[in-house]
Amino acid sequence: MKENEKEKQNKAGNPLFVIIIFIALIGFLFVIPEVYKKYNKEIADFLGVGKDEAEIEKEKENEQDNIEPTSDFFPIPQKSTFTYNEFEVNEVLLENKSLIIRLSTKDTVDLKIKNYYIEFYDDKSKFMGRRRLNGIVTRALDVKVDVSNLTIRSNTYFRISHIPNEGIPSIDLDREGDKPAELVCTKGNYTYSYEFNDKVLNKVTKKYTYTNNDLNEYATALLEYQKKQKEYSELTGVTADIVESNNSFIFASSFEYDKVKNFSRIQDDYLFEKEEKDNIVNFRMEAEGFDCQ
């Protein structure tokens, strides 16, 4: 028993034994992960073995570099299949002032996050306008785009484009004295007024106008918006009001960003996040078919 204890003490006090343990520890911490990464890259990438922030940023840059900014031009309708970046575009057709784009992809893609648009041209030369592509493509999706205020003719062409925020040109909004700069966007019965301080979003006022000569339908719609008014008024940073006039009413709501970062609870795609820049708001709203002044 004593001889075994003495043997253990000799090993613990042996400098060569300590060096071997130290080398093994270094190999475990540095060498083995690199070998593991080299021969098991997919698993290593998933676990983040051997990666640092610079490598991750480089991969993101390479991913952006591989994105083609625009597709080729195609006529409307387009029934043949073509590919653009991660998408296969199977068909593009016009149905009752809506353009239907059939997309398929191997991965799930959120079109809004990826900043994809469809642009319209007269004879491939005269730019007519663009619309933002919205929706989440999981294998396949029919994306519907409102083109009601665009004149689509037999000589109208389209192309799909990728426009990141950095590629959106700056704008200069008019100001009246010390008042915040304002951008007013209108489409149908909806009007959004955006206020900016130093070019970043600070407040949104939304107005919806409803008119109906049928008293029963009018009463039903009014009741619905009275409930919505109550719900909005209970939220932080939100005020709402209804103004009636004969057979119509205006539902007005205001959203203060000095109190809330975003209003995702409202579920309105046109309420941007706090401090969104004026050029981004203008570009996105026009790409949704709004007339912005």
Task: Please describe what this structure looks like.
The protein is α+β, with helices and mostly antiparallel strands and 293 residues long. It is 30% helix and 36% strand. The protein has seven helices and 14 strands. The strands form three sheets. It has a six-stranded antiparallel sheet with strand order 12-13-11-10-9-14, with helices on one face. Strands 1-8-5-6 form a four-stranded antiparallel sheet. The chain has a four-stranded antiparallel sheet with strand order 2-3-4-7. Helix 2 (15-39) packs across helix 3. The chain is extended, with a radius of gyration of 29 Å. It starts with a helix and ends with a strand.
Produce the secondary structure layout:
Blueprint: H1 2-13, H2 15-39, H3 41-47, H4 53-65, E1 74-75, E2 82-84, E3 87-95, E4 98-110, H5 111-114, E5 116-122, E6 126-132, E7 136-146, E8 156-162, E9 181-187, E10 190-197, E11 200-211, H6 215-233, E12 238-245, E13 248-256, H7 278-286, E14 291-292
Antiparallel strand pairs: 1-8, 2-3, 3-4, 4-7, 5-6, 5-8, 9-10, 9-14, 10-11, 11-13, 12-13
Helix pairs in contact: 2-3
